[in-house]
Amino acid sequence: MTFQTLDDLPAAQRVLCRVDLNSPVEDGTVVDNRRFDRHAETVRELSEAGHRVALLAHQGRPGRDTFVGLEQHADLLADHAGVDVSYVPDTYGEEALAAIRALESGDVLLLENSRMVDAELPEESPETKAETAFVQTLAAEFDAYVNDAYSAAHRSHASLVGFPRALPAYAGRVMETEYEANTAIASREFDGPVTMVVGGTKATDVIQVMEALGDRVDQFLLGGVAGELFLRAAGHPVGRDVDAELFDEQWEANGDTVERVLDEYGDQIRLASDLAYETDDGDRAEVAVADIDEKTTDYLDVGAETVADYEPVIRDSDAVFVKGALGVFEDERFADGTVGVLEAVAETDCFSVVGGGDTSRAIELYGMDEADFSHVSIAGGAYIRALTGQELVGVAELERATETGPA
Questions:
Q1: What residues make up the domain containing 102?
Q2: For each of the chain's 407 residues, which pLDDT tens digit applies?
Q3: Do both 274 and 219 map to the same domain?
Q4: Half-sphere exposure of 198 toward its Cβ, with a 13 Å CA cutoff?
């Protein structure tokens, strides 16, 4: 690890800390989720150490229903952290500056949604972001910057890459643990087989993961939309649109590449042997892939035989990485594949990382214990980039700041 952490932070600092509290919003109500609990550790540690803490976070994007202020987030974070978190409906104007200057030892303040600042969102260089009034104004009020928002670290936004150019910079506990776990597949040596469960809806993600990690992973276990596209590449009459428009456009864009990857890594790839669908009565039914003559319905999960095929591979592994769901697990009828594989991982004495989009949510949704996994990531896009060896600009700026200090 090549950046400074909270262990290196001097005492009694005025700390600006970037967290990622971005959450679903239902009928105007912010939904509690594991991000609050994870970031609560960093917030609590900073508060109990006597720092004066202001937090930056984002919620949604302009024009979307999820683009709301952070007042509810302050209450949710306070509940998880066990410390008071005040809120100010301003990010770097006079109201925000007055609230920052009034902070005392151990106080925590949540500033307004950083994406309500014009300078925040455009993807620009760290040098450009550091020169914005947003960064320059806030940086003058603090001694140190802490980036705990690993799940947003692939974004070159002002609150993520500008402040390490203006202040001494440190990684929070979420940033630290996510970085260590998510880079393990490339940086650690394992004594036994390494397995990767790959699903989700984006073929491009699966292709990138396979091409980047083909020499590190012994077996890829496929499912979800991506897995069905690979079945199509293998010559089966699936991976085509019926009701849901998830397949044909992706096949047109990536079909040749999927076929090439299947040919190149075929010995390492296991595909579903059966798939599950919804009957006219609304029940779950399964069909062997070999028995499908034509796709006439949407397939919403892998079947029981596929889970039975995948389980021994998982149980024989020294490390298992999970990226993406094997089915529509949000519907209990079609959760068997995702849950069955996750339960096998949980029961195996191996190093295990679960991440990618909402996949980790299945652990909570179906009553599994996070403690049974080595790490459950709250990152989506950043997790994919870490797995495929792409630079995360937010992490790179922490590393640069550690080496050279503020620019």
A1: 6-179+391-404
A2: 589 999 999 999 999 999 999 999 999 999 998 899 999 999 999 999 999 999 999 999 999 999 999 999 999 999 999 999 999 999 999 999 999 999 999 999 999 999 999 999 999 999 999 999 999 999 999 999 999 999 999 999 999 999 999 999 999 999 999 999 988 888 889 999 999 999 999 999 899 999 999 999 999 999 999 999 999 999 999 999 998 899 999 999 999 999 999 999 999 999 999 999 999 999 999 999 999 999 999 999 999 999 999 999 999 999 999 999 999 999 999 999 999 999 999 999 999 999 865 788 899 889 999 999 999 998 888 888 888 888 999 999 999 999 988 87
A3: yes
A4: 34
Give me the helices (H) in 84-192, please.
Answer: 94-101, 126-130, 133-139, 173-182, 184-187
Please name which of 387, 367, 369 lies closest in space to residue 323, comparing C-alpha atoms: 387
CATH number of the structural domain spanning residue 88: 3.40.50.1260
Q: Left if phi > 0, otherwise alpha if psi is -120 to 50, otherwise beta: which for 63? A: left
Q: How far apart are CA 43 and CA 108, in angstroms?
A: 8
Q: Which of 268, 287, 193 is nearest to 230 (CA)?
A: 268
- Rounded distance between C-alpha atoms, residue 337 and residue 227, angstroms: 12
Q: What type of residue sits at position 257? A: T
Whether residue 219 sits in one domain with residue 350? yes
